[in-house]
Structures are given as C-alpha cells and as structure tokens.
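Example 3.2
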Amino acid sequence: MQFFQRLSTLVLILSLALGVSVAQAQSGDTKRAITQISGDLYRFQNNFHYSVFLITPEGAIVTDPINAEAATWLKDEIKKRFNKPIRYVVYSHDHRDHIAGGEVFAETGATVVAHENAKRAIIGEGRPTAVPDLTFTDRMTLELGGKTVELIYLGKSHSDNLIVMNFPEERTLFTVDFISVKRLPFKGLSDAYIPEWISAIRKVDAIDFDILAPGHGPMGKKQDAADHAQYIQDLYDAVLAAAREGKSLDEMKTSIKMEAYKDWSQHEAWLPLNIEGVYRQVSLHRRGN
C-alpha cells in the first residue's frame, strides 16, 4: 500500500514538473529581437512579424505594435535602451495581426496615426487596438527631433488603407504584407485588390530609398519591390489567360508552374493558394464585365 502511495506521489511530482517545464517552454517560444537598420532606425521582430521604430532626440516614432504583449516588450526595451518616450505610433493598415495592442503606446500619450480608411475599418471591425488620433488621405510627413517620416498611400493593394513609410535619412522603406523579398505573397491573397496591387507596387519605384524592410521575412533592396510586382503580374496574366481558355481552377493549379520563381520561399506550399486568390479576382472582374 505504501509502495502505491509513494508511486502516486512520484507520478504527481513528475506531472507537476512536466507541467512547469511545458509552461516555461510555451512562454519562451516567442522570438523577439531589435536590430539596427541604419542610423537611428531599428527593426523589431516578434516571431514572424516585423515593425520598425525611429529614435530621435525628442522621442521615438514606432510603427505596427503587432499585439499587446509585443508592444509592452518593445516599450520597455525602448525605455531601457534609449530612455526616450514614444511620441507617435503609425499603423501600416487595419489588419489585426499587425496593429493589435496600440493602446499600450497610446496610454503613454503617443499620437496614433493611420490612413483615414484604416480608422474607419478599425472602428467598424472592432479591432483590439487604439483608434487613430490623426489620419490622412494621400501623404503625410511626421517631424520629430529633426527627423522625418513620410507616410504614403499608394492606392488599393493588400487592403484599401495600406500605407508605406519612408525614412529618407536612413534611406529605408517600411512595407507591410504587399511586398516580400523573394517570397510568394501570403497564401490565398485575402483582402487583396488585383490588378491595383500591381500598380501600387510599381509606384514604389518613384520613392527614393535603398533598403526595403518588409513586415515579414528578410530585408532587401529596391529591386526586390519590382521583382515582387513582376511575380504578381505574371501570375495574374497566367490565371487570366487560363480563364479565357475555359480552364477550371483545379486545372490551373496543375498547369501554372511559375518556374521563374521556383527558388522563392513558399513556392511549393503557397503557389496553389496564390492561384486560387487570383482566380477569385479574375472571376469577379469577368463577371463585372
């Protein structure tokens, strides 16, 4: 009897120990890091999401908070490393996975900035973040501590309110979701406007910058934006041509290979989903005509 009691106690202790170790592993799964891009501009990583922030003599300009936990961590790190208050937080667009947790910065007195369409969506969709205080339609320049950030709306793309952020002194452009570096667009191209998306990326060429800092994946150069636009253009043309030939979606997934981009990340996994996303757009346009 005592043996079984001791065995039960041992099992309980092992179970509790295992529970603690699992909890610790889960809490430690989040990968967060800050790296310098150029000058006083830094990139913040939270797992597979990235944002950027600029340090000035008068405080920091931060971008997408990502979520409340990430924003809290970043706020504390900026205080610890730079001892600067956060003056502005700029949303790239209204999607939750990039802008949740904006209240963490807003509660410290930061001004929240976004495109006017983003504010409408944030309120209408009940996004879990701070509502923007300051909005614009086409362009806006933020100035703080002798530094500037240019906020530019290029038209519909991944959403109807996505903007790019140009840091002229650091020669860096922050782009989220609608441009990646040698990686296919995310899965089924949800909330996408094609061919407007292609047009929006083409407009990036008129912006003077050298470093491309996307919201996901590795950083790149200006040419990477043009390459991404070409991929979407080639994919759109291929799907449209197949639709005009009367091919079904399943036939398109088999026949459209996009071999020129076979070395890009997620080519095998996401190409069928990309085709499906463009197919939806093409079908809508054809019905509209």
